[in-house]
């Protein structure tokens, strides 16, 4: 049989095995439940896939006006899918299916259905490549495959694939990097390592960083503990790692440099809490959601004769070192870029455990009955110890530890019967092993019932079927004397059963993926038919396409992407720093919910709505807090779409120029007026006289179930706070801007905050998602008193100021005669014509500023200026201005040149290496 045909059969086998490993999620899919987390899965993974697929298949690769207020998707979403090889291959496959009419246009629901199949194919590739890697390391076919299964069927793969699907790609690239390391150490060939580095850095800069740390650990162990005689000398190997790694990094530049720039141009507060060196994070023998060490590895790690085998010794030491790192929050912080501790790298421990199992499986003949008895006893002792000291271990887990211990003893007995060549003994032990599977299955059923789930008959029959199949297969194996194949089959079946049980308990039940249903995705909690009707009515009436709608479902800031409309919110781990500063610092815009990695709403501030093309706001028909100047346009049963009566044009001339520095000490409201009457520039020597300061209102303080002294508010009642009694009434149609600095003096208290009819929430100080932007400006309709309320507790409340906003400035700007303008904004390209009759020196646009924008006015290149804190402006000429704006990711062409240069250098280096090796 041809070798390629065997490889094809093995690939199909890996695909079937991977499907078995996803059996729980395939069953969930039959019930219209999906392999996606209810939080980031729905709020980020599915919308970003839809956004990027729509872009790529329409020929747009760099920018989207749907991404929040507009953003770079090539760089900004490089952390997710924009340069992921798995996603790009998925796009090609789905586009071919769509083009041939096999499927319709992919929407959010399609991507939810597709998730489990994408993960099945990826895991099959992990099995195939993992087996090939272990075979290259001179393991036999069965040990190599068994090691790949231990790596592939670990909890962390399914955790990653379910909640943050792009994380799972790291499973593939770690294997390629290790293969590249082995090629250098064994054959002095460095092309594979160079390609693996390039692929890793192109695919995802974040996991490239993690994988490089892991491979650095692997290389250090390999140099200290050689696996073969006559390996490449250490000095030669290190030079090859450095040279080929540098060339691989250079090849990746076109993707990696823009991605890293986006990461550096992101804003996230530094982690403000102490990180201990060590701590009991979880129990990696029983209940860890990251990785549970296989019981077989634990048993064999105590089998001392196996340490005479180099490969076994190497991989066991690698696992033990990984365990130490796992229990170090400092190490978890290091793997997360020295930020908050995150446990995302433990797949390396699973890989090392797979290598140890493969090595031990090749050397079972070293063990005697004495060795097996000692190893089994020590294993039972370790399991019992961890079960007794872990407060989260319950009765079911203790029973499970006994089941695991019994299985270890039985497996030990089976190894002993191999030594004695006793077929009767083997048959007896194999029968007991099948009973052990039944016992484990019964324990799983107990655990599921303890979770309050109704266990269905097919699951129980499946447990019995697996046990009987195992016994029959083993019996046949004993007769045919194919002992190793039978044993490997038993272990793989056990891994499959175990990982499906973990998926069900840890992900479906506790992880609440059971709530991610077709009904949710198409229903009012995610895709409200009422909202869709209002949005459809708005688009049917609107002629000008450059407007935005303020609406998002709950806390899903990427609702505009999911529902395909231009909104005012975004949620991504990497966002434009200028925009985040605009919200958190410069304009102090409350988002209704404090959290990093997000921006949303405009605090119902009419000035900002007009400046940023916020033409519509969809609100509950019971919400009394409507932005000033907005009137009801479309209504449904529970919602109203309000239209802005004080809209401003997309391109605005600016004659008055203000500097950020001059406005630094002024009120937030005066900064809004400056943006309305002119342009605020970051670095400028020109500064016009500032707009008149807004009227500040005096007030008297009155405690409400609270005592306020020296800037500290002590709320004694269930809720309480301060009343600000205005000594002068504001005009009836005015708004009040209430500014203050607020900190909760309790470290771990999340709390709601209300100011009259406005409600928001603030994170606890210990939360990793706290912004630490504690200067707030809340807009409310005019009232005689201002009622600030929060729960019982101690707060620092200072810098209280109240300003009146009658909107005279906005009304004046909105009433001005608008110059002729034609604008066509197609994501990464904007073409416009503007008749500058006022001879204004600048034109401003509500497009977020990023250094990737280039501009031409009447065919001449001009500078793109950072204006109005986070947006762009360009110099203008008198009369007609033909404006052309083009976006390319930061340093894109320089990065592309570096990639091409590195490719040429890599080709030369490869030719030189080939000549020397030949």
TrEMBL record:
<feature type="transmembrane region" description="Helical">
    <location>
        <begin position="284"/>
        <end position="307"/>
    </location>
</feature>
<feature type="transmembrane region" description="Helical">
    <location>
        <begin position="77"/>
        <end position="97"/>
    </location>
</feature>
<feature type="transmembrane region" description="Helical">
    <location>
        <begin position="347"/>
        <end position="364"/>
    </location>
</feature>
<feature type="transmembrane region" description="Helical">
    <location>
        <begin position="395"/>
        <end position="416"/>
    </location>
</feature>
<feature type="transmembrane region" description="Helical">
    <location>
        <begin position="371"/>
        <end position="389"/>
    </location>
</feature>
<protein>
    <submittedName>
        <fullName>YfhO family protein</fullName>
    </submittedName>
</protein>
<keyword id="KW-1133">Transmembrane helix</keyword>
<feature type="signal peptide">
    <location>
        <begin position="1"/>
        <end position="23"/>
    </location>
</feature>
<feature type="transmembrane region" description="Helical">
    <location>
        <begin position="892"/>
        <end position="912"/>
    </location>
</feature>
<feature type="transmembrane region" description="Helical">
    <location>
        <begin position="140"/>
        <end position="158"/>
    </location>
</feature>
<feature type="transmembrane region" description="Helical">
    <location>
        <begin position="487"/>
        <end position="509"/>
    </location>
</feature>
<keyword id="KW-0472">Membrane</keyword>
<feature type="transmembrane region" description="Helical">
    <location>
        <begin position="428"/>
        <end position="449"/>
    </location>
</feature>
<feature type="transmembrane region" description="Helical">
    <location>
        <begin position="455"/>
        <end position="475"/>
    </location>
</feature>
<feature type="transmembrane region" description="Helical">
    <location>
        <begin position="170"/>
        <end position="186"/>
    </location>
</feature>
<feature type="transmembrane region" description="Helical">
    <location>
        <begin position="314"/>
        <end position="335"/>
    </location>
</feature>
<dbReference type="InterPro" id="IPR018580">
    <property type="entry name" value="Uncharacterised_YfhO"/>
</dbReference>
<keyword id="KW-0812">Transmembrane</keyword>
<keyword id="KW-0732">Signal</keyword>
<feature type="transmembrane region" description="Helical">
    <location>
        <begin position="109"/>
        <end position="134"/>
    </location>
</feature>
<feature type="transmembrane region" description="Helical">
    <location>
        <begin position="206"/>
        <end position="225"/>
    </location>
</feature>
<feature type="transmembrane region" description="Helical">
    <location>
        <begin position="237"/>
        <end position="264"/>
    </location>
</feature>
<dbReference type="Pfam" id="PF09586">
    <property type="entry name" value="YfhO"/>
</dbReference>
């Amino acid at each position: 049989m041809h070798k390629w045909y065997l490889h094809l059969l093995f690939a199909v086998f890996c695909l079937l095995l991977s499907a078995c490993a996803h059996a729980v999620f395939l069953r969930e899919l039959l019930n219209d439940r999906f392999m996606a987390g209810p939080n980031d899965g729905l709020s980020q993974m599915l919308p970003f896939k839809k956004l990027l697929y729509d872009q790529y298949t329409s020929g747009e690769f760099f920018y989207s006006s749907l991404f929040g207020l507009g953003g770079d998707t090539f760089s900004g979403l490089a952390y997710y899918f924009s340069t992921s090889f798995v996603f790009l291959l998925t796009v090609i496959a789905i586009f071919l299916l769509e083009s041939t009419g096999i499927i319709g246009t992919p929407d959010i629901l399609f991507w939810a259905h597709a998730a489990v199949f994408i993960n099945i194919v990826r895991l099959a590739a992990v099995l195939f490549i993992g087996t090939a890697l272990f075979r290259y390391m001179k393991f036999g076919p069965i040990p190599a495959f068994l090691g790949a299964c231990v790596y592939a069927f670990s909890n962390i793969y399914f955790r990653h694939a379910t909640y943050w699907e792009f994380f799972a790609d790291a499973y593939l690239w770690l294997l390629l990097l290790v293969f590249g390391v082995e090629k250098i150490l064994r054959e002095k060939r460095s092309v594979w390592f160079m390609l693996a580095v390039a692929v890793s850095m192109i695919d995802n800069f974040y996991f490239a960083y993690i994988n490089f740390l892991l491979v650095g650990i692997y290389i250090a162990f390999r140099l200290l503990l050689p696996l073969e005689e006559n390996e490449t000398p250490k000095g030669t190997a290190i030079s090859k790692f450095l040279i080929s790694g540098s060339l691989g990094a250079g090849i990746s530049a076109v993707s990696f440099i823009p991605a890293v720039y986006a990461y550096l141009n992101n804003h996230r507060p530094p982690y403000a809490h102490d990180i201990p060196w060590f701590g009991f994070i979880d129990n990696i023998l029983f209940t860890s959601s990251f990785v549970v060490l296989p019981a077989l590895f634990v048993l064999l790690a105590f089998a001392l004769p196996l340490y005479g085998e180099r490969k076994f010794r190497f991989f066991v030491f690698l696992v033990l070192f990984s365990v130490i790192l796992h229990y170090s929050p400092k190490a978890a912080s290091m793997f997360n870029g020295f930020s908050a501790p995150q446990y995302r790298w433990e797949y390396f421990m699973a890989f090392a455990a797979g290598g140890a199992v493969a090595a031990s499986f090749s050397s079972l003949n070293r063990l005697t009955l004495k060795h097996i008895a000692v190893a089994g006893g020590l294993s039972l002792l370790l399991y019992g110890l961890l079960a007794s000291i872990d407060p989260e271990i319950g009765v079911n887990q203790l029973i499970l530890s006994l089941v695991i211990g019994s299985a270890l003893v039985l497996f030990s007995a089976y190894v002993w019967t191999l030594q004695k060549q006793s077929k009767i003994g083997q048959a007896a032990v194999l029968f007991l092993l099948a009973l052990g599977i039944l016992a484990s299955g019964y324990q799983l059923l107990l655990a599921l019932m303890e979770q309050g789930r109704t266990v269905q008959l097919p699951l129980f029959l499946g447990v019995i079927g697996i046990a009987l199949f195992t016994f029959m297969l083993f019996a046949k194996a004993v007769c045919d004397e194919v002992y190793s194949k039978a044993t490997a089959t038993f272990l793989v079946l056990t891994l499959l059963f175990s990982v499906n049980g973990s998926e069900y308990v840890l992900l479906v039940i506790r992880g609440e993926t059971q709530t991610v249903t077709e009904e949710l995705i198409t229903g009012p909690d995610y895709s409200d038919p009422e909202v869709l009707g209002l949005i459809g009515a708005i688009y049917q009436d609107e002629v000008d396409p450059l407007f935005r709608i303020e609406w998002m479902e709950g806390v899903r800031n990427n609702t505009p992407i999911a529902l395909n409309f231009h909104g005012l919110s975004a949620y991504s781990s990497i966002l434009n720093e200028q925009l985040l500063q605009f919200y958190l610092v410069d304009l102090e815009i409350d988002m209704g919910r404090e959290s990093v990695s997000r921006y949303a709403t405009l605090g119902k501030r009419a000035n900002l709505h007009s400046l940023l093309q916020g033409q519509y706001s969809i609100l509950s028909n019971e919400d009394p807090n409507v932005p000033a100047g907005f009137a009801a346009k479309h209504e449904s049963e529970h919602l109203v779409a309000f239209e802005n009566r004080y809209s401003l044009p997309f391109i605005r001339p600016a004659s008055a120029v203000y500097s950020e520095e001059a406005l630094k000490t002024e009120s937030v409201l005066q900064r809004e007026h400056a943006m309305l009457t002119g342009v605020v520039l970051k670095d400028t020597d020109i500064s016009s006289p500032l707009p008149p300061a807004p009227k500040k209102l005096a007030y008297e303080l009155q405690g409400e179930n609270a005592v306020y002294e020296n800037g500290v508010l002590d709320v004694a009642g269930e809720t309480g706070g301060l009343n600000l009694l205005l000594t002068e009434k504001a005009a009836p149609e005015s708004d009040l801007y209430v500014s203050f600095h607020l900190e909760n003096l309790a470290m771990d208290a999340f709390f709601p905050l209300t100011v009259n009819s406005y409600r928001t929430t603030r994170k606890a100080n210990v939360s990793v998602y706290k912004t630490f932007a504690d200067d707030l400006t809340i807009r409310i309709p005019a009232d005689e008193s201002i009622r600030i309320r929060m729960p019982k507790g101690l707060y620092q409340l200072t810098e209280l100021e109240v300003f009146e906003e009658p909107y005279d400035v906005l009304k004046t700007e909105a009433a001005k005669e608008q110059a002729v303008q034609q604008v066509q904004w197609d994501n990464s390209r904007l073409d416009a014509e503007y008749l500058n009759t006022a001879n204004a020196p600048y034109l401003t646009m509500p497009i977020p500023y990023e250094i990737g924008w280039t501009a031409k006015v009447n065919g001449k290149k001009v500078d793109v200026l950072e204006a109005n804190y986070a947006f762009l402006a360009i110099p203008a000429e008198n009369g007609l201005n033909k404006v052309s704006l083009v976006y390319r990711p930061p340093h894109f062409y320089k990065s592309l040149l570096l990639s091409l240069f590195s490719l040429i250098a890599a080709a030369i280096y490869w030719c030189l290496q080939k000549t020397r090796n030949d």
